[in-house]
Amino acid sequence: MSAARVKPRNDQANEPSSPVVRFGADKPLLLDAGVTLSPFQVAYQTYGELNAARSNAVLVCHALTGDQHVANANPVTGKPGWWEVLIGPGKIIDTDRFFVICPNVLGSCMGTTGPASTNPATGKAYGLDLPVITVPDMVRAQAMLVDHLGIDQLFCVIGGSLGGMQVLEWASSYSERVFAALPMATGTRHSAQNIAFYEAGRQAVMADPDWRGGRYLDAGVRPEKGLAVARMIAHITYLSESALHRKFGRNLQDRSKLTFSFDADFQVESYLRHQGMTFVDRFDANSYLYLSRAMDYFDMAADHGGVLSDAFKGSKTRFCVVSFTSDWHFPTEESRALVHALNASGASVSFVEIETDKGHDAFLLDEPELFSAVRGFVDSAARARGLHR
Amino acid sequence: MSAARVKPRNDQANEPSSPVVRFGADKPLLLDAGVTLSPFQVAYQTYGELNAARSNAVLVCHALTGDQHVANANPVTGKPGWWEVLIGPGKIIDTDRFFVICPNVLGSCMGTTGPASTNPATGKAYGLDLPVITVPDMVRAQAMLVDHLGIDQLFCVIGGSLGGMQVLEWASSYSERVFAALPMATGTRHSAQNIAFYEAGRQAVMADPDWRGGRYLDAGVRPEKGLAVARMIAHITYLSESALHRKFGRNLQDRSKLTFSFDADFQVESYLRHQGMTFVDRFDANSYLYLSRAMDYFDMAADHGGVLSDAFKGSKTRFCVVSFTSDWHFPTEESRALVHALNASGASVSFVEIETDKGHDAFLLDEPELFSAVRGFVDSAARARGLHR
Predict the structure, then answer these.
(1) Could you say which residues from 91 to 120 on chain B have a Cβ atom under 8 Å away from some Cβ of chain A?
(2) What local confidence, expressed as pLDDT, does residue A10 receive?
(3) What pLDDT does A388 receive?
(4) Per-residue pLDDT averaged across A325-335, rounded?
(5) Last residue of some domain: B256, B278, B293?
(6) Which of A86, A248, B20, B133 qualifies as a cystine partner to B43, CB 3.0-4.6 A?
(7) Are B105 and B291 in contact (CB under 8 A)?
(8) Mind telling me how many Å the CA of B56 is from chain A's nearest CA?
(9) Helix B224-238 / helix A192-207 crossing angle, nearest 10 deg
(10) Per the domain annotation, does B150 fall within a domain?
(11) Are residues A222 and A335 in the same domain?
């Protein structure tokens, strides 16, 4: 296990602009696929200071296209960290008070081992030679990072969407290591509709001849068009119909009349094309396949003999489950089913359904009702944990 | 204008397996794009006999991927006509009683002029040299077919989705020629979300290198992968989340365990791939671009100074508007807004909202409540028209 290092931008998959911990042959990771991953590495960011009692750590789990740069400028895009509305000095998750850890997930492309990482056996990028990764695999790797940081119990684990799946997996598999859990805009499994949309996106990537069976990095090309289409499809599911209507409606883009062509006449077209084009600059296409697959495979009830509440049996973790009324990627019913299971398991749980028209992405946005719910839950849990201001 | 002819399968775009009427230089079609299309042709099917009073004609308008083969075996796929559940001898729209006409729409690929048709100016397929087509253009061409058949007033115009848009356009632009109108699962405009999904599909087609800027037919190739992805995206929007859950859930396809790969592990993936693959055998990629664009452009209120009810001012047509509770492609609210506008214009309208979990495609399926609504409306309108059994 080597020391943490910081590297400048470029080959983020191998040399991330963040600390990284390398686990060698003495610390293999057994994957759900039935094979071992070794060596592997986890890139992560931390903010704030671990207190003497090592009791103030907050683990932030990112979503499909997120990364470890939760509260600092992104080294690829230069944009603010993806959750700076919530996390930072004096923010709701106050880095003057908490020690915030955000690891890049296994299978991603920002420094934790993923398909764009160099396979030590070949000296080339893994591509599809990396075994399929699951959410429990991601969480097992994160637990090794938390061990490495010398933390027995996390004060809080928080995240939305795929991040929320990781939160739930943490609370299920490492219940004693999670004092409080804040899963948002998530579910305990991917629905058939979610699998369908992600499958369409994967087919778009794999249909791009520049994908080259997953070996595009060897060839110095990238399946940009296919990945852009996949992003466009997914992005529609992240917004509600009413948000799209409010933001764009049928407004035209920089023109007063229809052009009678296949140009982006409508603002919504222009917006989506932009989303697709900027995404391919910062994300690896194979990582998109792996992380979407991990979401498809996630099914906590199936992992517990078909009884969801068994996933949380005997849990002492305090839960706050957050959903958004207009989220149709992870509808509020999914959260309600989770809350029923948590209640059945005897866990301590509060449920906050936030009224918003912003859709799935609401968990990333400036949403006052969300902030006040998170603040209330975190402050109350901190008091219970003896973390006084 | 030449006589109707029937041709066997193969080049359906130029030599359809159905009657076709050719409009020569004396009958140009002025398009909304501001240019004239001439010559052009309309392929169509008819069933039953026109009565002596020429008062029993029912015009069926097909949806994006439909065709004129509404009640006979499809010449390409060999499958039954796409609306045989509703139309045929002794059926609800009884071809022993009504003279049913179904034209292939302008811009499609089954014999009516579209991008796969030969451009007489070049001897090659139009490709993107065909002007962009609108729903009013489609209806204007259909009106010329109806003239050709010697029919002043249609007893009924019926269709769902893009077909429903045509029904509404008929009732607006040719009110006196439409005794009764039955628009289903449709709206008076495409929503931002619909534009977004179709734009993602168009980008998938255009990202396929075999699309070749629209000139793939000259090169003897087809953008099959891109078109398959477009079909997969659209197909998800045609089904409800609950229908997907009921039909597929998270069931695995021909296997008892996850394979930890990117194969189609889940039934829903296998189903979607099949939908994509079979679609490309029967449909032209450029037609997909044109017809989806026509739907995006459709906006009846915008065409009438922003006042939707003005589209139907003074209409004597009887309307029956049909929507489906689980249709999220054309939500029932769209139909309700249409009904409000029809009421405001003083039109005669009934509204049937059908409770079903089958989603948008319900209008094509065996839906008893739909059948009884159509039967009731058609029988009552027939009596009012003096069409006794």
Answers:
(1) none
(2) 59
(3) 77
(4) 97
(5) B293
(6) B20
(7) yes
(8) 37
(9) 170
(10) yes
(11) no
- State the complex-level ipTM: 0.94
Q: Which residue among B250, B265, B293 closes a domain?
A: B293
How much is the pLDDT for A8?
Answer: 35
Instruction: Give the CATH number of the domain where residue B244 resides.
Output: 1.10.1740.110
A339 and A213 co-located in one domain: no
Rounded CA-CA distance A168/A187 in Å is 9
Give me the helices (H) in chain B, please: 135-148, 162-173, 192-207, 216-219, 224-238, 241-247, 267-282, 285-297, 332-344, 368-384
Give contacts of A 210-269 with B, CB under 8 A.
Answer: 225-226, 228-229, 232-233, 236, 241, 244-245, 247-250, 258, 260-262, 264-266, 268-269
Q: What residues in chain B have per-residue pLDDT under 50?
A: 1-9
pLDDT of residue A3: 38
Domain total in chain B: 2
Catalytic annotation present for B360: yes
3-state secondary structure of B286: helix
Cα→Cα distances A351→A300, A343, B24, B70, Å: 19, 11, 68, 51
Is B191 considered catalytic here? no
Is B261 contained in some domain?
yes
Q: What's the N-to-C CA distance of chain B in angstroms?
A: 35
Same domain, A165 and A133: yes
Torsion angle, CA of B214/B220/B226/B231, rounded to 10 degrees? 100
Task: Look at residue A236 and tell me whether its pLDDT is greater than 50.
Answer: yes
Taking only the tens place, the pLDDT of each residue in A73-92 is 999 999 999 999 999 999 99
Q: Is A52 in the same domain as A86?
A: yes
How big is the A-B interface in CB pairs under 8 Å? 153
Residue A7 pLDDT > 80, yes or no?
Answer: no
Question: In the annotation, is A161 catalytic?
Answer: yes
* Residue numbers in B near A209 (CB within 8 A): 209
Which of B117, B161, B323, B326 does the annotation list as catalytic?
A: B161
Q: Is residue A6 part of a domain?
A: no
Report pLDDT digits (tens) over A290-311: 999 999 999 999 999 999 999 9
Q: Do A262 and B207 touch (CB under 8 A)?
A: no
Interchain CB distance below 8 Å, A193 and B250: no
- Region A144-151 average pLDDT: 98
Q: Specify if B168 maps to a domain.
A: yes
Angstroms from B244 CA to nearest CA on chain A: 6
Q: How close does chain B come to A167, measured CA to CA in Å?
A: 22
pTM: 0.95
Express each pLDDT in B116-127 by its tens digit. 999 999 999 999
Domain that holds residue A378: 20-191+301-384
Mean pLDDT of the residues in chain A = 95
Contact residues, chain A, for B262 at CB < 8 Å: 128, 132, 202, 206, 289, 293
What pLDDT is stored for residue B351 in this prediction? Answer: 98
Please check whether residues B224 and B288 belong to one and the same domain: yes
- Buried residues in B336-368 as b, exposed as e (16+ CB within 10 A): ebbbebbeebebebebbbbebbbbbbbbbeebe
Please tell me which residue in A284, A296, A360, A361 is annotated as part of the active site.
Answer: A360
pLDDT at A1: 39
